[in-house]
Design a protein that fits this description.
The complex is a heterodimer of chains A (207) and B (692).
Chain A: H1 18-21, H2 23-49, H3 53-56, H4 62-65, H5 68-93, H6 98-128, H7 137-170, H8 174-206
Chain B: H1 14-20, H2 24-49, H3 53-61, H4 66-96, H5 106-141, H6 149-171, H7 196-224, H8 237-269, H9 282-314, H10 323-336, H11 352-364, H12 366-380, H13 389-411, H14 414-420, H15 424-454, H16 460-486, H17 502-531, H18 573-580, E1 593-596, H19 601-617, H20 621-639, E2 645-648, H21 650-666
Antiparallel strand pairs in B: 1-2
The chains are: A mainly alpha (207), B mainly alpha (692).
């Protein structure tokens, strides 16, 4: 066993210079994620504090608006995408070739895209019921929190696009390997935030 | 309404207002706008006339060198300082005449205190602090650059975009009128439908993101890029304070970014976070804003404490007294700073027991600060003291900052706070900690490290004139405000009806004139020093008999900082080398050095962010979208760059370093008595009077 240079999946010594070269970037990205967690934390707190009769302002609440079937499907898509993203990382670590990595990334993107489509259709049906963010403080908090997560997923899909482009143009260079490590951290982080949203927003809302 | 130019039309400039309604009020606004336009035109003319566009582009705007980026941060800070001080002087002049009226309209006065606060905190203090950290930290820890040199450039670009938008707001349209904290619902779209709060939001958000990225950069640099042997407890204290400030930036900046964007959602998309109706809750804004706002104060003041630590040790030629206690105190402040934010709104209606918990936390934070002040005084004790410019500032700081700190402890008591909150007592308090605490330290730090960056010292006599004017000007301007506050004068008053306020208002107004002179003397000091750079040159790099690694290299410091990465064996690394042997020896071998290539990424992001911010402010949707897409595209295109570094051959380093070593060996050092004379070329001779 070689010593880990940073938390999370390490490339390991078999990757030569790419292993030490990724140390600072991965560590820096962890620090960024901690900062991003504060951002989500504030929106979680705002959402939780607005779930009162005053925050609902006489408008519709969780029971009228949330569709647990759709949310369960979204969760399944996202958890599965985390698994496929992990497969991409492991393919890289085990030297399975750029093609295999690209394939797993593509599957990840499809699952992420499926999540996003379902989420957007949920949003659309809420808007159709007159339950947009301008209806009440609680709905503002809901759309900001869940919407920010959705925006992160969208950015992640763009990132996958860039990674696939890099793999096509530059192959599996040391820099691309580091970027794959960062992307994997980002994607798993979004999964973790979704677990929070699933539990606090949806399950607690329907409990 | 929102066509090609959104809400923009020809009536939004202060010039149009001055023509339509001539008077003191509109002339002041038009004059300020005119100054911005004239300044911009003069700058463009200057650059063109002296053919400086090429060097500006090559050596500065596209550079990823941490020292250049630091200097550009400081330039932003100084330019914005000039504007902030001018606004302060206008406000003092207005209040001195504000018995039953005053020359400016209430609206205009409100704009002034809002821009003044926003500028002084986010675009003067923060850029100066971040600039100094950028310049100094890699040099102190034996690194070649920041961990992420290009991201550093992006941080600068984002901060510059915020500052640019603030300057634009002086010429086009009006700024926000709800103070630097921009509390809704007043700043919501019901009560402030115009462009003002939008200008505030789109200045603050990029600066907040930029500072957060700086925090990540500093933290990773200090954790991961230290030279061998530079253990945590050997790091210079400025680096320690930079580390704590960096960690705080990472955690304290997201709240202000989020609260500003939530306010933007309220304003643009009709959300109800902070509105009066439909479930909005403005107390949540105050809560989130001060989760940033209070740690921010310590983000600014901790590096200032770092400057005082370096200055007191160097200019008394003694090792810093109580190093471990200073480190612990710094860490303690960084942690406690996150537990006191509620003292900014004791009167908002939470229970007495909540208030007292935060009141006690606030009082506790004075303890580590007190430890530090004693440590610095003990450092000076029986030292070989030279009363240089930084030491004059330190003296002013000692006396004035303690007064400011004590009034802070007074305000920490909720029962007293109920009496004096929202009065000039509070204004006096925070100016009393921020000016002697942060501004004096930044001016002292610039004086102290200036030779390392530019290769020549700053003029001592002009520097001392400026320092004394700042100290006296501060006292005359702000100490009377304590009395006025206790007499019951509310802050942010554009007029008052009690004639008892007039005498002290006149004193404070006179003080503002002294502060204007102090600013002028500071700028003259820089100008005179540039003209006399020949006699003030210190090419050998150690003008103050320094103790830490940054003094162990030529001045100006080369782009690659260290010819070879030093091995550190002691806390005052360079001092140990000087006292234990010869610090100026050639290494056995030199190695190739990898340096970041210049890139325009930071500049592109700066321009795109400014455009997007301006467009959002004026509802010019096509431009806003282009700006945001531009930022995204720039980042994505950058991902495909492969040639991001260049290699400096070892032979070239050897020639540069060898030439310097040779010059050092043929030169004669000076003792501390000659530090302020042209004989000081940056080589320190052993000082026989030193007692260890």
């Amino acid at each position: 066993m070689t010593a880990n240079l940073h938390p999370g999946l390490n490339l390991g010594e078999s990757h030569g210079a790419a292993h030490p070269a990724s140390e600072n970037r991965v560590f820096g990205f962890w620090v960024f994620l901690m900062s991003d967690l504060i951002t989500f934390g504030i929106l979680f707190a705002t959402y939780a504090a607005s779930g009162t009769p005053m925050g609902l302002a006489g408008g519709p609440g969780p029971a009228q608006l949330f569709d647990l079937t759709s949310v369960a499907l979204q969760t399944a898509f996202l958890l599965a995408s985390s698994l496929t993203c992990g497969m991409a990382s492991l393919s890289m670590k085990a030297h399975a070739g750029a093609g295999r990595i690209a394939l797993w990334l593509l599957v990840t993107a499809l699952l992420g895209g499926g999540f996003l489509m379902l989420e957007l259709s949920d949003f659309a049906s809420m808007l159709a019921q007159g339950a947009g963010p301008a209806r009440s403080g609680w709905l503002s908090g809901f759309f900001a929190l869940v919407g920010l997560h959705g925006l992160h997923i969208t950015a992640g899909l763009l990132w996958i696009g860039v990674l696939l482009g890099l793999l096509a143009v530059q192959g599996l260079s040391d820099r691309v390997k580091t970027r794959l490590l960062l992307f994997a951290l980002y994607w798993h982080f979004l999964d973790l935030v979704w677990i929070g949203i699933f539990s606090i927003v949806f399950l607690r809302g329907l409990a | 309404m929102s066509g090609l130019f959104g809400h923009l039309d020809w009536t939004v400039t202060p010039f149009a207002a001055a023509i339509a309604d001539p008077g003191t009020n509109t002339f002041v606004a038009a004059g300020a706008a005119g100054l911005v336009v004239l300044g911009a035109v003069a700058l463009l003319g200057f650059l063109t006339w002296f053919r400086l566009w090429g060097p500006l582009w090559r050596d500065w705007l596209t550079s990823a060198d941490h020292k250049k980026i630091g200097v550009m941060y400081c330039v932003i800070g100084i330019v914005m300082l000039a504007r902030g001080v001018a606004e302060g002087a206008v406000m003092r002049a207005h209040q001195a005449m504000a018995l039953n009226g005053g020359p400016l309209s209430a609206e205009h006065f409100a704009e002034l205190f809002s821009t003044h606060g926003t500028i002084m905190i986010l675009f003067v203090a923060a850029p100066l602090v971040i600039g100094l950290i950028n310049i100094v930290v890699p040099l102190q820890i034996g690194a070649r650059d920041m961990a992420f040199p290009v991201m550093n450039q992006v941080s600068l670009g984002l901060t510059a975009a915020g500052a640019a938008l603030l300057m634009i707001s002086l010429v086009i349209g009006r700024f926000e009128t709800g103070g630097w904290s921009a509390y809704p619902p007043y700043t919501g779209r019901v009560f402030s439908p115009g462009e003002g709060p939008d200008y505030w939001i789109w200045s603050v958000v990029p600066a907040g993101i930029g500072s957060m990225l700086s925090g990540i950069n500093f933290a990773v640099t200090i954790y991961k890029c230290r030279a061998p042997g530079m253990t945590y407890m050997r790091m210079p204290l400025f680096t320690w304070t930079a580390l704590c400030a960096a960690i705080m930036l990472v955690y304290a900046m997201p709240p202000v970014t989020v609260s500003s964007l939530m306010l933007a959602l309220d304003r643009y998309a009709g959300f109800h976070f902070f509105t009066n109706d439909l479930g909005g809750n403005m107390m949540n804004y105050a809560n989130i804003f001060w989760m940033f706002g209070h740690p921010e104060v310590y983000i600014l003041v901790l590096p200032a404490y770092g400057v005082w630590s370096e200055v007191s040790a160097t200019f008394s030629a003694k090792t810093l007294y109580g190093y471990p206690s200073l480190v612990i105190a710094t860490m303690a402040i960084a942690v406690i700073a996150f537990t006191v934010w509620l003292h900014h709104f004791f009167t908002m209606g939470q229970s007495a027991s909540v208030n007292i918990a935060f009141g006690i936390a606030t009082m506790i934070i004075a303890v580590p600060t007190g430890v530090k002040v004693y440590d610095w005084m003990a450092t000076l004790w029986r030292g070989r003291i030279r009363m240089t410019v930084p030491m004059v500032y330190l003296t002013g700081f000692f006396i004035l900052f303690v007064i400011g700190g004590l009034t802070g402890v007074i305000l920490a008591n909720p029962t007293i706070d109920y009496q004096v909150h929202n009065t000039l007592f509070l204004v006096a308090h925070f100016h009393n900690v921020l000016i002697p605490g942060v501004l004096f330290a930044m001016l002292a730090g610039i004086h102290y490290w200036f030779p390392k960056v530019f290769g020549f010292r700053l003029h001592e006599t002009w520097g001392k004139r400026a320092a004394w004017l700042w100290i006296v000007g501060f006292c005359v301007t702000f100490l009377p405000l304590y009395a006025l506050g206790l007499m019951g004068m509310p802050r942010r008053s554009s007029s008052f009806a009690d004639p008892a306020f007039v005498p002290l208002q006149l004193v404070a107004g006179a003080g503002a004139v002294i502060i204007l002179l102090a600013l002028a003397a500071t700028l003259v000091c820089y100008g005179v020093s540039i003209r006399q750079r020949g006699t003030l040159a210190v090419p050998f790099g150690d003008p103050w008999d320094g103790r830490t690694l940054e003094w162990a290299m030529p001045a100006p410091a080369p782009e690659w900082n260290f010819a070879v990465i030093p091995a550190v064996a002691a806390r005052d690394a360079f001092w140990a080398e000087k006292t234990g042997g010869d610090p100026y020896v050639a290494p056995e071998r030199y190695e190739d050095i990898e340096l970041p290539r210049p890139t325009a990424l930071g500049l592109v992001i700066c321009v795109a962010t400014t455009a997007a911010g301006f467009a959002l402010t004026w509802h010019i949707w096509w431009l806003a979208l282009s700006g945001l897409v531009g930022i995204g595209l720039a980042v994505m295109v950058r991902a495909f760059a492969t040639q991001t570094t260049r290699v400096l051959p070892a032979a070239e380093v050897a020639v540069h370093h060898g030439r310097w070593l040779e010059a050092v060996h043929t030169a004669r050092g000076i003792t501390r008595d000659a530090e302020d004379s042209p004989a000081n070329r940056g080589l320190a001779a052993p000082d026989t009077e030193v007692t260890p």
